[in-house]
Amino acid sequence: MSGADQGGWVRTARDGAVLTVTLDRPDQLNAQTPVTWAALAAVGSSLDDAVRVVVVRGEGRSFSAGLDRSLFSADPATAGGLGELGRRPAEEAQERIRRYQAGFRWLRSPGIVSVAAVQGHAIGAGAQLALACDLRVFTEDAVLRLPEATLGLVPDLTGTSTLVELVGYSRALEICLTGRAVGAAEARAIGLATTVVPAAGLEEAVGALVTAITAAPAGASRETAALVRSAVRNDPEAQDAAERAAQTRRLAELAGGR
């Protein structure tokens, strides 16, 4: 197993086909900053083809409590703060946010399956990081919240599209507009959590899930993941065509390329 410090309170560890990305700021409940998002984006841009599963976790008692409090400063002199961003020209502000989003969107890149190991708080940016992953393992004490609207803001780190995919329009709207807490049991019931386990069993449960995912041949696993992702947006005719094309590729590989 190999590991590296990515800066921005993010570290990585590689074990064969599995890459673990850890938010490593436990004294601040893994609160995030633009430096964190740049570090996450750098991990995504450096992935190699041998990586099949990415596990995202938070060190300590919480997955991530959201934005670092310093970012809420209205002082335009606070670098990276909301006040400073809000005073920039619209196109420049949107480009900045686009770069922030890049730290999240890569978690659904073709070729990998991403798993969030969520304990304690997953709030705001923390919730959106969990939502950016394909699968989520919650501990029984996990709580997810998207409080942005109650703070005069909106979720802007890729969270809205994935939330609607998971729980549907009406439930997603209610969760976002009220900013209420979604506990682990409800998260499992509405499809936010793939599974819920006791806090002491998080590592074992994630490990078992990763083992099951990587047990399938890499080519079949990647093609299947791509099909399930495309099914969310394709009409039936387009999805049928995607299935035909994927199966043809699989059969040709199994037949030795004939």
3D structure, described in words:
By secondary structure, the protein is of the alpha/beta class. Helix content is 44%, strand content 18%. The chain is built from 10 helices and 10 strands. A 7-stranded mixed sheet has the order 1-2-3-4-5-7-10, sandwiched between helices. Strands 6-8-9 form a 3-stranded mixed sheet. A hairpin with a 2-residue loop joins β1 and β2 (10-15). α1 packs across α3 (90-105) and α9 (218-231) packs antiparallel against α10. The protein is globular. The two termini are 38 Å apart.
Supply the key terms.
258 residues; alpha/beta; seven-stranded mixed β-sheet; three-stranded mixed β-sheet; 10 helices; 10 strands; 44% helix; globular
Per-chain topology:
Elements: E1 2-7, E2 10-15, E3 18-23, H1 34-45, E4 53-58, H2 82-86, H3 90-105, E5 113-118, E6 121-123, H4 125-132, E7 135-139, E8 143-145, H5 159-167, H6 169-178, E9 182-183, H7 184-190, E10 195-197, H8 202-215, H9 218-231, H10 236-254
Parallel strand pairs: 3-4, 4-5, 5-7, 6-8, 7-10
Antiparallel strand pairs: 1-2, 2-3, 8-9
Helix pairs in contact: 1-3, 4-5, 5-6, 9-10
TL;DR of this structure?
With 258 residues, this protein is an alpha/beta fold. Helix content is 44%, strand content 18%.
- Rg value: 19 Å
Quaternary organization: single chain
According to DSSP, the number of beta strands is 10
Strand pairing plus helix content: what structural class? Answer: alpha/beta
Report strand order across the widest sheet: 1-2-3-4-5-7-10
Strand content: 15-25%
Morphology call: globular
Please give the largest β-sheet: 7 strands, mixed
Helicity level: 40-55%
Residue runs with pLDDT of under 50 for 5 or more positions: none
Number of helices: 10
Determine the mean pLDDT: 93
- What sequence of helices (H) and strands (E) makes up the elements? EEEHEHHEEHEEHHEHEHHH
Distance between the termini: 38 Å
